[in-house]
Structures are given as structure tokens and as C-alpha cells.
Amino acid sequence: ENIAVTECFEWLLRSHLLHVKAVLEKSKRAANKMSLVEICACEAVYPKVVKKKLRGKSISSINVFTNGRTPLHAAMRRPEGPMRRQVIKALLSGGADPFIRPVDRNSGSSVVASLLEIEDLNGIAELLACGMSEEAFMNYKIGELTTIEVILDQNHQTYPPI
User: ANK repeat positions in this chain (predicted)?
Assistant: First the structure.
């Protein structure tokens, strides 16, 4: 009786793995037709596919806003984990600019500004760990305030001075 259950379970697992493999193969083919923003946002697309798509892209095309997002914006929306970090590293080393603002201010904001707006310090830390320039981050201004002043201002509301 246990042997039959084990064999049934193995068959189900094998079927599931074959299905997952087919979906991933399909996603590779589909990724060739997708825009850079779409493949950076899609968690089913592996980082190596993103890196392949980045080859031959100019820095200006990596920083293009599409519907208010750059490929780096899209990558930051992936679930946290090693695949997201690999995509972010690939984008940053390819010339993605986390500080770039759209020409039309109504069509979005920089990656850093949007992370600070939602108070996502983990996202900021991840960008820094993946290669974002610390100096550029420290000197970046949002309105009249530097990023550090914005963070301190946000935390001042939560943690009053001693």
C-alpha cells in the first residue's frame, strides 16, 4: 500500500516538474519578444535571460521610461531574493541609473525617490549592496533635501530624539 502511494507521489512530482520546465522554456522564448521593462519585472524570467537581453543595449536605452517605469523600477518589483539581486546587479553594471528622472515629471520618479517615498530602506540597502554609488546617493536631492535628510526626517517622526 505504501509503495503505491510513493509511486503515485513520485509520478505527480515528476509531472509537476515537467510542467514547470515547459513553462520556463516557454518563458525563455516569450522573453525574446518582451521589452526590457517586462522581462525585468517578470519573476519567471531568469537573470541570465535579462543579462542576454542587456547585451548590445546602450545606456540610454537601459534608462528609458516606459509607462512611468525604467527596467530598474521593474526589477525592484520582483520578489526579494537572489534572482532579484542578480537582475539589479546586471542592470546597474549595464549602466542603469537609479537617480534618473523622467523628462515629463508627471510620468514617474527616480527609483531612489520612489523607494524613499514608500520608506523602503531595505530596497535602498539592496541597491547600495548591488553597486549603486554611495557618494551619489548621499548627494542626491529630492526637492531641497538630500536623501539622508529625507531618511532622518522620516525616522524623526517615528523615533523622537533622546
Answer: 67-103
